[in-house]
Amino acid sequence: MTRQVEAHHYCGHQNEEMRQCLIYDSPEANARLIGLEYIVSENLFMTLPDEEKRLWHSHEYEVKSGLLVMPGIPGPIERRDLELVCKTYGKVYHFWQVDKGDSLPLGLPQLMMAFTRDGQVNNELVQGCGKRLGVDYEKERENREYMRGPEHGIHPLANGGGKGLKTVLREVDLPNDQPPSATRVFV
């Protein structure tokens, strides 16, 4: 939660159970592609192995808090889609650490989590976005109070199981009976 960036999602529907989104750092023509998100229904999320569920975050807070917006989409249409998104889970990887000032996508992709409660978001970032996009986040929050999250509640293993996660890259040597091209693997 110490690193937060503005993220603009452009999503396509694989089917009713899954969306896939490209994430850019702005809505401008020169925006940088910084990551991707897979969004799945609660039903599909429940089929994942438990160790995988920790890598996914719920969308209920992002939607109900007003932080997730669809600029340029009429309110009734936006709310109808957000009613569905409020019940979903997402898995996000950022490839480009723009908040570090990197001019290229350097290092390992980073698994990102989402805001899950009040007090986590950088208010300056939110206010800046709201001003540029013409969004009143408090009004959005009020308009979405009626929305409901996952039917079975937020799964206890989602959102990192309530703990932070750290991705670690390590190099391992394989047994010598492997072909030369496969003697080193990153896991």
TrEMBL record:
Pfam families linked: DUF1264
Domain of life, source organism: Eukaryota
InterPro entries attached to this UniProt entry: OBAP-like
Family to which this protein belongs: Belongs to the OBAP family.
The protein's name in its UniProt record: Oil body-associated protein 1A
